[in-house]
Amino acid sequence: MSSSEVGKEGVRGERPGREAQIGKGLRGRGRRGGRRGGRGEKAMVPEAEFTSYYGKPILNPPVWKSLDIAGYFFLGGLAGAGSVLAAGAQLTGRPAAARALKISSLAAIGGSTAALVHDLGRPERFYNMLRVMKPTSPMSVGSWLLAAYGPAAGAAAALEVTGLFPRLGRAATAGAAVLGPAVAAYTAVLAADTAVPAWHEAYRELPFVFVGSAAAAAAGMALVAAPVRENAPMRTAAVFGAGLELAAAKLLERRAGLAAEPYGRGRSGAYMRAGEVLSAAGTAGCVLLGGRSRAAAALSGAALLASSACTRFGVFHAGVQSAEDPKYTVVPQRERLATRGTAAAS
Amino acid sequence: MGFFTDTSVCIGCKACEVACKEWNAVPEDGLEFTGMSYDNTQGLGADTWRHVAFIEQSKPIGQNETGVEHGAAPDASGMRWLMASDVCKHCTHAACLDVCPTGSLFRTEFGTVVVQEDICNGCGYCVPACPYGVIDQRKGDGRAWKCTLCYDRIGVGQEPACAKACPTDSIQFGPLDELRERAALRVDQLHDLGVEDARLYGHDPDDGVGGDGAFFLLLDEPEVYGLPPDPVVTTRDLPSMWRHAGVAAAALLGGLAAVFTAHGREGGAR
Ligand code: SF4
Ligand code: SF4
């Protein structure tokens, strides 16, 4: 209990005495350790196993609900990539596909915004998201992106359905198509910009997993909703999306080291594997049969949609799993310190 | 302004935990018999802004009885007890503050990091962003809460409640450079006594978070106390993250454009 006076300039008056001799160690007095490294730590012998505080996580795991946030990732991707496909379909004379995709994009972006607001601890204050514009906060950037993309997607769909103001409709369609990829990609940054090992360490590959998954989902939606005669580019888009997603996910698992382990384990592992199987089935189905049979196309499309949703849930749970186990926080940081130590020593 | 917590003199009395709860009117969040030594608050969270960790180790500390001349022979009692009062680090590069989309988290004139509870909308982004697992969402309230370094007290010239209550001055409050100086002296003193384990944690302005506004003197590796050994502010990689996302978005747009170009108009090629 110091009786010092504290002000904005600091503490005036008494300093605590520091004579307490908390155990004099095992060595005799006066023998210095003398092994202090640059950060005041003694040189370390690498530990055989990692230690933790009663196995408690170091991080506070995300408080986000999986249905809301994984659902938000999925729906945002579906909407964003859908707007690109809609514009492409419109420009190349595929009106039924364009119309269906515009409507699905509007529904998806509406659903994803609702999920985001629902996940807030104080939903009635959601508008505080637009209180500031902060490039250091992906959630702030995303909110502004949604504020621009949502009305564009909405206008594109509404003008398409009503047939009013065709020129304005084309402008809205183009605007949504330009903003769509950003909506699909930024959610990867949203996840990666955290201390959660499985997300942060994956920040290079995650955007590609997400846009690939988004393209596959939107192509799947088009296969479900559009007639066979218009779906040829959608089938190619499905192959493109599923391929990109798979390649990026494999790269992630190879490159992220220990942080990639949760992607193959537990709930996350199950979702990721289900996503791969559904994606393979959907892609094969639409390539082989989607051009001939309406039913086969719709079925393949549904598989692609489900696959994209599974991948998003898999990514979400991988993050939660990696935050809940102190191993994923401690071991890579220890390795980092050890490499830095040897680099400094040599 | 900040804290220096010298865990070598902590006696585990939890006066800081209690003083913090009382002063800041932090709601009770249950007491549990955890089996984790004398720890029943478990970790920092929305309703625990000071947390005293208790670690029982079978490492002899030796020669620690006061008033006894131990001589040269090692007195290897079989166990030592580490106690440490943990708190928000008030990082120089604070991830929680960087990612907060509403501007609810802000940096005060004292260099500390504080949540404005009338602005926070409970998005929860700060929670997984903090590399130390400090800030959390309060159940039933929905907003994020953490140590304010007693913003209200230091504003009127009072030291924070925990530092005021600490009977051993394990928790010291003051200007950081002065605290760092004091801490360096203390480490040297302990090393001279033969306590080789003593080391500072979070004091280095060149570390991954630009130095902590609340740093520590520890007697073992940080992870033993539940602290990350080498925390890095996540936003350090943010420019690279945006670049990767930008390339991915362009790949999506370009890839799908190529698909439509290849297929041409309906009824055209293929
Ligand atoms: S320790 Fe965590 S909550 Fe405290 S300032 Fe740093 S990032 Fe924010
Ligand atoms: S929960 Fe509150 S303080 Fe934390 S990032 Fe969201 S708005 Fe900011």
Automatic annotation (TrEMBL), chain A:
Keywords: Cell membrane, Membrane, Transmembrane, Transmembrane helix. It comes from the Bacteria. It is found in: Cell membrane. It is a multi-pass membrane protein. The chain crosses the membrane at residues 69-91, 103-121, 141-159, 171-191, 206-226. Residues 1-18 have a biased composition (Basic and acidic residues). PANTHER family: PROTEIN NRFD. This is Formate-dependent nitrite reductase membrane component NrfD.
